[in-house]
Amino acid sequence: MDIIKLHRTFFSLLQSGLWGYGNKELSIFPLTEVEWEGLYRLSREQTVTGLIFAGIQKLPENIQPKENLLVRWIATVDAIERRNVRMNSVLVELYGMFKKIGLNPVLLKGQGIASLYSNPLLRECGDIDFYFSTDRDFSKANNCILKEGIRTVSKADGSIFYFWKGVKIEHHKRMFDLFTSRSIRYSKELETRYGVKSITLCGNNYVQIDMPHPVLNVIQQSAHILKHAVGLGIGLRQFCDLAISCYTWYDELADEDMRTIYSELGLDKWCSLQYSFLEKYLKLSRRYLPCSEEKISSDFLYDIVWSGGNFGYSAIKTGGTSGSAVLRKVHTAWSFYKNIRFAYKIAPKETLGLFMYLIKGQLK
Q: Model pTM?
């Protein structure tokens, strides 16, 4: 199988599904059944199966995959949509429960970003992440869950997780994955300055849910992607989220000096790199980028995406056992070591802070 052709086809379908236009690379079609199977596998590994399928739907019928694979793809997309509906229902239920006891949770990533897509249900969902800005609110929310008879599990970073009706929920004390004292202090100032933005979820237009202001949101996503890019790995879903955020919130981001903010956080080089990736591989127009920096090569980041996939899951084939948890730790350490030169050039202070954080986490 021609890997170059496979990747080229993959991105052409992803771009078409993400932005809603017809495929601009029709010359690479038709594909063989083996090539279509390869695209299906890649879409699952990168957790963009729904977006790739949306791109396929814009192809002429005579060059779409054959019925046997098409049926499997439709079934997978249907499962994604049903899971999204269930996630939104759980999210609305929990959010309402917290509001009733006087809490103001902030939704991070996930379903909030999904609401920005033209078809939110096609975005593959993961966990539900709530941020509580004070220790008091964090403890009160956790006690609320315990009173419902739900078992919670503490993590090394101070967050907790549990399962509510089969959906994994996480409570966080921090909005950002930042690891130096200066960046953490400055990010708290940004939280106070910008606050939150209310959104509605697909199928739940009567419920207003708070998520971070667009400025905070793109910073939160950028820092989250960096943490995973130098660790276990990162997939295309997270870059699609960032691209759709920049596109949707362009006016609100353009009014701010994002370059200054990134510089204060020590993320200016990293953000130039990720925006180069969005422009080259996802075809996000340069006019929607929050910072118009000089283009820099994003080839190494491209390699990280393909080798890591969905937070490294596709690379290490984890199955949720204790053995795989050990394997995951080993893979994290190896990935960090392998990417250290790249990370040091892009975000040296945050990389050192993350390294110390990882060591601390392993010792807990």
A: 0.91
**Positive or negative: CA dihedral 280, 232, 87, 54:** positive
Return the DSSP state at 125: P
β-strand pairing of 128-131 with 106-108:
antiparallel
| Vertex 271 angle, CA 21 and 268, to 5° | 155
Q: What is the pLDDT of residues 143-182, one digit of tens each?
A: 999 999 999 999 878 899 999 999 999 999 999 999 999 9
Contact by Cβ (8 Å): 109, 221? yes
For the segment 227-249, what is each residue's pLDDT rounded down to a tens digit?
888 877 889 999 999 999 999 99
Phi and psi at residue 297, to the nearest 5°: -65, 130
**Rounded to an integer, what distance in angstroms lies between the CA atom of residue 97 and that of residue 92?**
9
Alpha carbons 53 and 56: distance in angstroms, whole number: 5
Strand 128-131 with 167-172, pairing = parallel
- C-alpha distance from residue 359 to each of 319, 330, 336, 362, 363 (Å): 24, 13, 12, 5, 6
Q: What is the rounded distance in angstroms from the CA atom of residue 108 to the CA atom of residue 14?
A: 24
* Neighbouring C-beta atoms of residue 54, cutoff 10 Å: 22
Extract the tokens encoding 288.
Answer: 């929607």
Where do runs of H (alpha helix) occur along 249-298? 250-254, 258-265, 268-281
**Are 273 and 301 contacting, i.e. CB atoms less than 8 angstroms apart?**
yes
Q: Coil, helix or strand for 206?
A: strand
Amino acid identity at 109 = K
